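Notes from hallway chat w/ T.B., transcribed later so I don't forget. T.B. wanted the structure written out for a chain they're using in a teaching module, and asked if we could keep both sequence and structure tokens in one place. Agreed to drop them here.
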Amino acid sequence: MSAELPAYKIYAIKYAHHDRMAGENFIGGDPHEGAMPLDYYVWAIVGQSRVFVLDTGFDAEAGRKRHREHIRDPRVGLEAIGIDPLAVEDVVVSHMHYDHIGNHEPFPNARYHVQDREMQYATGRHMRHDALRHSFEMDDVLQMVRRLYAKRLVFHDGLSELALGIELHHIGGHTMGLQVVRVWTERGWVVLAADAAHLYANIERARPFPVVYNVAEMLEGHATLLRLADNALDRVIPGHDPLVMARYPAARPELTGIVARLDLPPDNAG
């Protein structure tokens, strides 16, 4: 079957950064551990005739509010690889945290794809709790409701085939309805994990990230990511790891540190 699938190109576009300590990235993290910063990405999946964007990031105002370094508008990276945001017809929402569904202006013509359970989570009883609500922005959630009423929201329940060679898989864990994207490429299946794993270390050390709806689902999700990637960790792309930019080749030399090609094998495993 896989031989009949179209092969896509995948790009990671870095738009923000946050310096923090390793202890903040793991449940039960040791405050004496060293630095382990996070990078923030959006992703583009490019086929012969169709482009999909995974997540939309946050804007400069949200960065100031959350004390994150907003480096550039994600549109800059998209346009640098020839993608016109106005022409994008499909945006996949991995989950509805502020750093994944901000930036409401760039994609006015797109349908947004979200899991049923994520919309339920972001608008339901769980948002009474500060510990679960703090990664959401009410205005972002309201924008999703407006898209629903404008008939620009597409709901998915578990596994969906978004297009031939692109699958959506519900994982949960980090949020109730978090979904990942499995993409067929020239090197096989690549899984865009978003926040099913923030860092390679979350998977390698079996240490869950502390922002979590269900710890058991998060840990089981790590195993699911590997299974979806045919048990090849180098074909799982975590959502916030600076090592992604270090390991994968740039889309072009002048885009080093800005846009990486994920459909190509990593050229640095360190």
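Follow-up for T.B.: The mean pLDDT is 96. Might be a good example for the class.
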